[in-house]
Amino acid sequence: MSAPPRRVENLHTDKGKVPVYATGIVEQPWDDYSAEDHATWATLFARQREVLVGRASAQFLQAQDAMGMSPHAIPKYAELNAVLGEATGWQLIGVEGLLPELDFFDHLANRRFPVTWWIRTPEQIDYIEEPDLFHDLFGHVPLLMNPVFADYMQAYGQGGVKAHGIGPDALQALTRLYWYTVEFGLIREDGGLRIYGSGIVSSKGESLHALESAAPNRIGFDLERIMRTRYRIDSYQKTYFVIDSFQQLIDATAPDFTPIYARVAGQPSVAAGDVLDTDTVFQRGTGEGWANDGDV
Ligand code: PHE
Ligand code: CO
Q: Which cofactors are named for this entry (predicted)?
């Protein structure tokens, strides 16, 4: 890392205390990446691609290839933007790290995706608490090449601006939707389950866990059920939700959420590992290794 990111404040959220960085857009300081930074990218890229063949959605892998991402060097945002702009009109902007919610939603609503400019240190190869360049670029950016997913992300940003005006319960429900789709979603493809969530594709351990472990539940996508479901921030997820297609995601989230938020706010939340009678269960987890507390 060439310079430490600039932490400006800590924000208390339902994810605990998270650092919130300067909100300004920064130019990617590409010339300042060290040989070690490029080597970290190369190591993570090669390792994840090996894990993800046959595990990640083919749409994700194809999009990553189409963008020209390779282990050779940390990609230049400007070069990715030329391809991405042509494909779906999305643009990457460099940021210091996590943004305040409203700024983040506003960027998405305008088809701008904030990408953290700095990459983790070699000591953080297997686990890092906050999103870095590898998580954002390798994990989130490829599916912005997909026209349907690209529209979903913009709609999410617009919905976020709206939820922000409605209040904390609405924001919590929307955050859970993001968590269980964009970050930790699974999709049915070629007769099996595949990964598309960025939090999974950017983690070797969670890629194997999400698909192959007997511990977690794998349950069919259900909007209101997801909006009620708490999640894990310090361990692998106890439950993954499965979509049939990105079209299902955009169709299911098209209705006005205002009455849905009100209904969800009146119902009890669901623990991260619970299975309900109304669930479409692909796999009921054994729960092996689960901590009893710590859902957020
Ligand atoms: N339809 C949602 C609303 O009215 C907006 C949204 C779309 C939210 C897609 C998330 C994902 O608030
Ligand atoms: Co993320």
A: Fe(2+)
Query: What is the DSSP code string of 220-231?
Result: E--HHHHHHB--
Digit-coded pLDDT (tens) for 159-180 = 999 999 999 999 999 999 999 9
> Out of 14-18, 150-154, 233-237, which region has the weakest mean confidence (pLDDT)?
14-18
Give the integer Cα–Cα distance in Å for 57 and 126: 22
CA dist 56 and 89 (Å) reads 24
Buried b (16+ CB within 10 A) or exposed e, 122-138: eeeeeebeebbbbbbbb
CA 34 – ligand 2 centroid, Å:
24
Alpha carbon of 149 to ligand 2 centroid (Å): 15
Report whether 233 contacts 206 (CB < 8 A): no
Ligand 1 center to residue 252 CA distance, Å?
Answer: 9
Distance CA 37, CA 30 (A): 10
Residue 165 CB-half CA count within 13 A: 8
The residue to mutate among 148, 151, 158, 175, having the most atoms of ligand 1 within 8 angstroms of its beta carbon, is: 158
41-90 pLDDT tens trace: 999 999 999 999 999 999 999 999 999 999 999 999 999 999 999 999 99
User: Which H or E run contains 60?
Assistant: helix 58-67
**Which atom of ligand 1 is least distant from the CA of 177?**
10
